[in-house]
Design a protein that fits this description.
Layout: E1 6-10, E2 13-17, E3 21-26, H1 34-48, E4 53-58, E5 78-84, H2 88-101, E6 105-109, H3 112-125
Parallel strand pairs: 3-4, 4-5, 5-6
Antiparallel strand pairs: 1-2, 2-3
């Protein structure tokens, strides 16, 4: 398994950074609101700069997302979002709301490996 080039530990969870994607693991007791989203986006911008990337949200243990945070995302830089969860039915219902608020590509995956494969190929295809 590939090791992250950087891991950022934050009060609400952690973000692992790789060449073309980042994996966010948010503690289920936190809601991704404007404050949390701005912090995530700051870390992503610091790491990737102007490069295109995909954000992978590890939701194995779930967390709530305020739909309004999607308006903060520069979809020309964060060109895709992947949600990884084994609880597909509930995740798909929540993800459909999130997808409607996001202008980039969006996917829900059962495994981290499938989300990573999608992220890597998607960034390569959009470079």
């Amino acid at each position: 398994m590939i090791q992250p080039s950087k891991t950022c530990q934050l009060e609400y969870g952690a973000i692992e950074f790789y060449d073309s994607y980042a994996i966010g693991k948010i503690d289920p007791k936190f809601k991704v609101d404007t404050k949390v989203a701005k912090s995530i986006l700051h870390e992503v911008k610091e790491h990737f700069g102007k490069r295109k990337m995909v954000y992978i949200s590890d939701r194995e243990f779930g967390h709530d997302v305020d739909i309004s945070v999607y308006k903060l995302i520069d979809y020309k830089k964060m060109i895709g979002i992947a949600i990884v969860t084994s609880n597909r039915e509930e995740a798909i219902i929540k993800a459909s709301e999130e997808q409607a608020a996001y202008k980039g590509s969006f996917g829900v995956f059962n495994t981290m490996d499938s989300a990573i494969s999608w992220a890597q190929s998607f960034v390569e295809a959009n470079d």
